[in-house]
Amino acid sequence: MNINEIIRKKRDQEELSKEEIDYFIKEYSAGNIPDYQASSLLMAIFLNGMSQREIFDLTMAMANSGDTISLSSIPGIKVDKHSTGGIGDKVTLVVMPLIASLGVPVAKMSGRGLGYTQGTIDKLESIPGFRTNISIGEFVSNVENIGISIMAQQESIAIADKKLYALRDVTATTESIPLIASSIMSKKIASGADKILLEVTCGSGAFMDSESRAKVLAETMVNIGKQVGKETIAVITNMNQPLGRYCGNSLEVMEAINILKGKGEEDVVKVCTILGAYMLKLAGKGDNLGNNFRLIQNNIENGAGLKKFKELIEKQGGDSSILDSPELLNMAKFKTPVISQENGIIYAIKCKNIGQAIVNMGGGRQKKEDFIDNTVGIEVLKKIGDHVEAGEPLLYIYSNDEEKAKKEAIKLQRSFKLGSVEVPKIEEIIDVIE
Ligand code: URA
Questions:
Q1: 155 in the same domain as 126
Q2: Domain CATH number, residue 161
Q3: Would you say residue 73 lies in a domain?
Q4: Which of 291, 323, 355 is the last residue of a domain?
Q5: Which residues contact 315 (CB under 8 A, 6 or more apart)?
Q6: Residue 431: inside a domain
Q7: Atom 5 of ligand 1 has which residue's CA nearest to it?
Q8: How far away, in angstroms, is 294 Cα from ligand 1 center?
Q9: Torsion of CA 300, 305, 309, 314, to 10 degrees
Q10: Which atom of ligand 1 has the smallest separation from the CA of 179?
Q11: Is the domain of 41 the same as that of 109?
Q12: Is residue 20 scored above 80 in pLDDT?
């Protein structure tokens, strides 16, 4: 088989056979296909797409490109969760301890930031001492002992995804339905959970910018789940504005703590509670979503979710005093306001620009080997439907380089679109695909 011929076929919109897909994944994982050829194939897939059969074959090849984890020693239905990524999306940090506090075993492998979105692992690493690079043995034993563990995607699991994910991040090939579906589902299949809850984000701050594309992605992943016998539900959430108040790794950990203390903003609390309710349903804890919703709310109010988060932090070596004193999280030096130049009512926010500003200030990767600054981020003061006066701040930028922040502030000013007619607040949940 010849990689050049495989690239040519995809470039010319032909379907790849299972053997060709298997060959590419096997040889790329083994280091026998260089990044420049893999990038070229990724771009051809990005531009020309893949059939459902090709996406399934790609997913399975990626799932089998490394070790697979068995969680069978852990009793109960293990439900995994994954987000397609968004701006200010700290849902995993909140929901996983909450459902663990309700007796659902949580064994979650998470990723790092991709493109202009931040990842759960980078967020957790902003907690001093928190270890995400734990062994699979420690991961399973944590779940057996305290009912929850979150670890970075291991080198040995879905090896192809780890390499391709980093490559896509720096080759403008992230926003592709076949590549996102296979990336997510391969990891979920290899990491051993029984059922899967997907948060498919949609809007100006998501990889899927239209509802129709988000729906196709959601259906594609739900079908892959069905084909491998892992019940999968996808909740399509609105990402036309940042979720909650803060974006950026340390800031989002601080916000997640506040949510678990019952002090969260309405939009992010709603998304966390609804996703949690579906996860309880998948875990066999009850089909009545209203009841499940209340169970999650109760465990926010009575502090059980926060207590579980504390156990997780301590078990993985983190400093749990941040829960009482979030100021112990490292924070950026400067706080720069983004000021509105006009009066009006916000009808749109170019949400990707917020994520990109964080990347530009060092909070995301421009090259796959980049280190990131977890302290930088953005506080969102105004959202769609809000009235704004000229001179009022729309955002605060948290940075360690004030000059850079001022430049970003000018771009971010233009990311808010203001009109003169009333605009309704956005609906957080767009659709649920089961
Ligand atoms: N999350 C993933 O794991 N992969 C993607 O491609 C996008 C979001």
A1: yes
A2: 3.40.1030.10
A3: no
A4: 323
A5: 142, 145, 146, 149
A6: no
A7: 180
A8: 30
A9: 120
A10: 6
A11: no
A12: yes
Same domain, 33 and 176: no
Encode pLDDT of 369-399 as tens digits. Answer: 678 899 999 999 999 999 999 999 999 999 9
Domain with 162 in it? 79-323
> Does residue 51 carry a catalytic annotation?
no
Res 368: pLDDT: 62
What domain count does the chain have? Answer: 3
Atom of ligand 1 nearest to the CA of 183: 4
Domain CATH for 344: 3.90.1170.30
Whether residues 172 and 241 fall in one domain = yes
Q: pLDDT (tens digit, 9 = 90+) per residue, 113-172? A: 766 777 899 999 999 999 999 998 999 999 999 999 999 987 788 999 989 988 998 899
Residues 301 and 342 placed together within one structural domain of the fold: no
pLDDT above 70 (res 61): yes
Q: What is the mean pLDDT of the chain?
A: 95
Is the same domain home to 217 and 257?
yes
Active site annotation includes 187: yes
Taking the CA of residue 85 as reference, the ligand 1 atom at the shortest distance is: 8
Q: Please give the Cα distance from 265 to 94 (Å, whole number).
A: 13
Q: Find the mean pLDDT for residues 52-80.
A: 94
Q: Which residues pair with 95 in a beta bridge?
A: none
CATH number of the domain bearing residue 39: 1.20.970.10
